[in-house]
Amino acid sequence: MAMAYEFGPFRLDAEAEILFRDGEPIVLGQRAVALLGLLLQHAGAPVSKEALFDAAWPALAVEDSNLTVQIAALRRAFDEVGGADWIETLPRRGYRYVGPDVTIDALPAASPPVPPPVLPDKPSVAVLPFTNLSGDPQQDYFADGMVEDIVAGLSRIKWLFVIARHSTAAFKGTVIDLKQVARELGVRYLVQGSIRKDGNRVRISAQMAEAESGHQLWSERFDRALDDVFALQDEIALNVVSAIEPSLRRAEVERVRRKRPDSLDAYDLVLQAQQDVDSGMPARVTRALVVLRRALALDPAYALAHANAAMCHHCLFLRSGLHEEDRSASVRYAEAAIAHGRDDPQALTLAGFSIGMDGHDRAAAFIALEAALAISPSSALTYILGSVMLAWGSEAERAIEWSERGMRLSPLDPWAFAAYDAQAMGHFHLGRYDKAAQAAYRSVQANPAHSITYVQLAAALDRLGRTEEAKAAAAKVLELHPTFRFSRQFAGVDCAPALAAAMGDALRRVGLPE
Q1: What's residue 365's pLDDT?
Q2: Per 3-state DSSP, what percentage of the chain is helix, strand, and coil (rounded to 5)?
């Protein structure tokens, strides 16, 4: 049986790895949750550092500072209710929970924790965030964009396994332990670097190492004009590939040296808009649309700008009232992205998603997604967004498979909530309600502001007979999305009739309006 620990206004679902306060999920990392679970299990008694390290970093050798950081995160969460002193430090020994009394409840067993990834059977690499040395934090977007484009070039090499930039971004601003990072991502090689953008010059220092041994395979410094930024991205990617496989074929070189936008200014505007696009929040995507329209005025054939605009309108359609003008704009921009971006896997992926979800043409959507994977087999986002469409279409087994493949390519992806959503729907459709609830909980942990996840959580918990928790999840749906009506939502995403009927029955029982 899985355990839930209740103390003060908090409740820790140890199996789902989520801490709630007054029913609201608190975003904490898995390591902090593991430490808290062990402290609560031994409430009032000392817990040694060794036991805590074993709980949060099994089989890994890490510095004491890592434990200190995670304990500080727990104290910050408790400090909001005056509980900063609930975890007592025992100098040189460990820690002890000394807060409110702990009540332990048994819950139906859920699926086991996700194991750490194993090395793939082909060369594997991750490009870590480049340090911005410009002295201007506003230039972070440019450093992130450089990494994104280097990763995009590497991802076009079919014999190479490449982790998505979204996952490596989790290590931004942290002290890097190469072995630990490589194990968390499941790769053999790591690329690091720094970048300074100064006027019309770009200066980059980059190096690549075999993580387990720490042996440096390649290192170089670059000082180029800003106008040469695309050629520089390609050169760094080719250096990485050549360090792994010196006998690089000409065809592979040409795959890396792909077509880029005609306007460097348009490219810079798309980089500036990207974080707002990825947020999935209506206010932020509305702001991104202003910037993307400026980019398209400079370069009307810029496929990625069209694709990002499609995703902005997709967000507005689903989260701001299901207005027809947003649905039609999403499809219109997506069609333009495909017309101009037949060699751009990211543009094809985003456009395919909009056409499938908003245009309800899943056949056309998967033509675009399969084309993206043919160009870039390491495209995690293609698998993740594809899994969502498969799940709404009741292709349950394939949805779960695609979501798992996407998460392996990007274990720490900010789109993880969508992958877990797909798993939740897939397991629900297959009658595996415990696994559906587990996946939905993981999605909540990844993105507590995403109302659709609570819909799936409410339905799964209802089928498990956990009525009060299901009603709490339903209440959260209406808090996040006051105008929510599940029949309109199902129609908006073209939910398969069998899945809509099954979920609808559960949602009626927990009080969500039809």
Answers
A1: 96
A2: 55, 15, 30
Q: Are strands 161-162 and 94-97 parallel, antiparallel or unpaired?
A: unpaired
Q: Which two tokens stand for residue 511?
A: 């009080």
C-beta of residue 122 within 8 angstroms of C-beta of residue 159 = yes
45/41 Cα distance (integer angstroms): 9
Task: Please identify, among 336, 359, 377, the residue that sits at the C-terminal boundary of a domain.
Answer: 377
Cβ burial of 329 (10 Å; 0-12, 13-18, 19+) is: buried
Q: Is residue 366 part of a domain?
A: yes
Q: What is the CATH number of the domain that holds 303?
A: 1.25.40.10
CB of 33 within 8 A of CB of 18?
A: yes
Mean of the pLDDT values across residues 357-383?
Answer: 94
Residue 128 forms part of a structural domain:
yes
Q: Which two tokens stand for residue 318?
A: 């689903």
> Which among 305, 337, 328, 356 has a CA at the least distance from the CA of 493?
356
What is the rounded distance in angstroms from the CA atom of residue 168 to the CA atom of residue 170? Answer: 5
Query: Whose CA is closest to 95, among 53, 34, 135, 39?
Result: 39
Structural contact between residues 458 and 484, judged by C-beta atoms closer than 8 angstroms = no
Domain coverage including residue 82: 2-107
Average pLDDT score over residue span 104-132: 73
pLDDT at 383 over 80: yes
Model pTM? Answer: 0.75
Which CATH number characterizes residue 37's domain? 1.10.10.10
For the record, the structure tokens of 55 come out as: 């709980």
Strands 10-13 and 2-7: antiparallel
| Matching residue, tokens 């500036």 | 272
Check if the beta carbon of residue 147 is closer than 8 Å to that of residue 129.
yes
Q: Is residue 55 part of a domain?
A: yes
Q: How many domains does the chain have?
A: 4
* Residue 412: φ, ψ to 5°: -120, 30
3-state secondary structure of 98: coil
